[in-house]
Design a protein that fits this description.
The protein is mainly α. The chain contains five helices and no strands.
Length: 73
């Protein structure tokens, strides 16, 4: 793995944790360091950090507040 890829991984604790949990990425990144972007996308999907996941989370929180407000009436 080249030095630049290692710095990108070390700068993001979520990537470090994902790499430890999915060690097959070591082999992939050694062969093709440009796959760091794909690994980052997979990490975001696995940890539910995508934009759509955040919107869904906000929507569920708003529904919870709405339900709470309805019960207070």
């Amino acid at each position: 793995m080249n030095l630049e890829t290692m710095f990108k991984i070390k700068s993001n604790p979520n990537l470090v944790r994902y790499l430890h949990e999915n060690s097959y990425w070591y082999k992939i990144l050694n062969r093709n360091p440009n796959m760091i972007n794909k690994m980052n996308e997979d990490m975001k999907k696995a940890y539910k950090m995508t934009v759509s996941d955040k919107i869904d989370d906000l929507n569920s929180k708003m529904n919870l507040v709405k339900a709470f407000m309805d019960t207070m009436k």
